[in-house]
Amino acid sequence: MAANYTPKYFNITFPQEHVAHVEINRPNQLNAFFEAMWIELGHLFNQLSTDPAVRSIIISGAGEKAFTAGLDVKAASQGLLASDSKTTDPARKAVHLRREIGGFQDCITAIEKCEKPVVVAMHGFSLGLAIDLSSAADVRYCAKDTRFAVKEVDIGLAADVGTLSRLPKIVGNFGWVKDVALTARLFGAEEALRVGFVSRVFETKEEAVKGALELATLMASKSPIAVQGTKELLNWSRDHTVQDGLRYTTIWNSAALQTSDVQSALLSGIQKRKPTFEKL
């Protein structure tokens, strides 16, 4: 059994063995995020990361209109983006903002740092924070009706929670990223597929979530030692040279190859049976 989860702003279910489904649950507000939500998201993924009963995770949004419309601007205008009349010193304001932004970044980075692979199924409006969040995940699926935007320049700021750092590495096209980031223009599912931001496009939200669940279930059927190691090594290699990646892989696998999962996987292939792996 998975650990006890009691999030307030997310639904969490376990639709298949070893698979957790995290659903953003604020549909009447287009699943827009305010401070308590992103803090809860960070805590939730830190907990999922070390839950031995969970081997893969999917994320979706409740309701039919939006995966998430991004930051709840009204709430932010009274919080993070509010002017601080009590403090007039610019340096002190900057220190406060730096801490706030860093904490926000950490909550989204918790998805990337999560030891388990994370698959996102997006639909409808997927704006601003939706790009930050999904860029921190491992695989992105979407429905045909999805409308994306790197929205931040429309509210007077540069995206600061991960999009500008991760999106260029995902699509490998700085020109296209500057196109969408400097204009905040909408782009659709087919364009997202063409540039490599999403891996698959489905007719409906329901089909996208089903596809994400099938993929996560397949991941969860593999050795958790192998899957978690693969995610770690891919993320490390993305940010380092080839030689650094090879060296890190050597060190990592000098420990990981001692697992009994290798023998279990090899024997199951020879014996034509489904392998079973211990919890991790």
UniProtKB/TrEMBL annotation:
Domain of life where this protein originates: Eukaryota
Localization terms from the record: Peroxisome
Gene3D superfamilies, A to Z: 2-enoyl-CoA Hydratase, Chain A, domain 1, Lyase 2-enoyl-coa Hydratase, Chain A, domain 2
Database matches in Pfam families: ECH_1 (PF00378)
GO CC terms of this entry: mitochondrion; peroxisome
Pathway assignment: Lipid metabolism; fatty acid beta-oxidation
InterPro entries named in the record: ClpP/crotonase-like_dom_sf, Ech1-like, Enoyl-CoA_hydra/iso, Enoyl-CoA_hydra_C
GO molecular function annotations of the record: delta(3,5)-delta(2,4)-dienoyl-CoA isomerase activity
UniProt record, GO biological process: fatty acid beta-oxidation
UniProt KW keywords: Acetylation, Fatty acid metabolism, Isomerase, Lipid metabolism, Peroxisome
Family: Belongs to the enoyl-CoA hydratase/isomerase family.
PANTHER family: DELTA(3,5)-DELTA(2,4)-DIENOYL-COA ISOMERASE, MITOCHONDRIAL, ENOYL-COA HYDRATASE
Protein name, per record: Enoyl-CoA hydratase/isomerase family protein
Species the sequence originates in: Aspergillus mulundensis
